[in-house]
Amino acid sequence: MKVSDFDYELPERLIAQTPLEKRDESRLLVVHRKTKSIEHRVFKDIIEYLNPGDCLVINDTKVIPARLLGKRKDTGGKMEFVLLSRENDDTWRVLVKPGKRAQIGTRFVFGDGILEAEVTGITEEGGRTVRFFFEGVFQEVLDKVGIMPLPPYIHEELKDKNRYQTVYARHDGSAAAPTAGLHFSPALLNRLEEKAVCISRVTLHVGLGTFRPVKAEDISQHVMHRESYEVTEAAAAEINEARRRGGRIVAVGTTSLRTLESVADDKGIVHPGRGETDLFIVPGYRFKVVDVLITNFHLPKSTLLMMVSAMTGREEILRIYQEAIAREYRFFSFGDAMFIE
Length: 341
Fold this sequence. Notes:
It is a single chain. The protein has about 350 residues and is α/β, with parallel strands linked by helices. It contains six helices and 17 strands. It has a nine-stranded mixed beta sheet. Strands 5-6-7-10-9-8 form a six-stranded antiparallel β-barrel. It is globular, with a radius of gyration of 20 Å.
């Protein structure tokens, strides 16, 4: 398949720039795969489509203020870092701009000097490994000097940074939010638990590779970015028990789906563990454990659109997207959602 097979035209006015006032009042496009029919609802109506015994799997990663604006210590030249992944206590893999100023051994300062960094290596992707120097707790320092890294297609300032976090975010580490989860409110989650829907947590730290375009025209030649995950023994046991009892496994977002499919065996048994995944899901993939997907609307020619196409079929998802465009759904991170069953 070619990248161009996953292209579509989207009016720029449909790219949501700000979140709605109430999380669970986004629109919801419900896709019934068996009958190839769709319904148009509101997100909080999702409770009508989940059954007692189903297992809702959420990604509890937390977005960190990963964008750092600073300057070279010797020349004062401006520099931007975006934190990608932590190597150890004080060493990170980062994106840098401009890269020519970030040679090995160069030092940079951020936030009036409360944070310093030295470039220690160059990564295969052209990024850098850097060692940070600070006093106290790194996360507390980062909260003071870092900026929330919003996606490149969002041009308006986010007034409340918590709106780019899920209400259940727990583990620091993401450079981007698992946006399907942004639609859940505490009240909606409580209602689901009252309905005996199991809610299980996994963790996958979302990297900026999720926004990286597919450059190879033949998608089989694309090298998928790696992301860190963790599935606890308790979560694996809950998910496996739900399947054993006949409940459906409902992935909240492509990140939860990618995590589950990475740790499941060919029999659909989910195994606990932590590691990195570069699983690239495209049409033709056989899902091992996930039955239902909750997801936002994704960029043209993106790996996420390819993943969703693997559930519905490429032609079908493009047909559904055209229906969503015609009805003026809001797209991308702060946009509306789909329920694919």
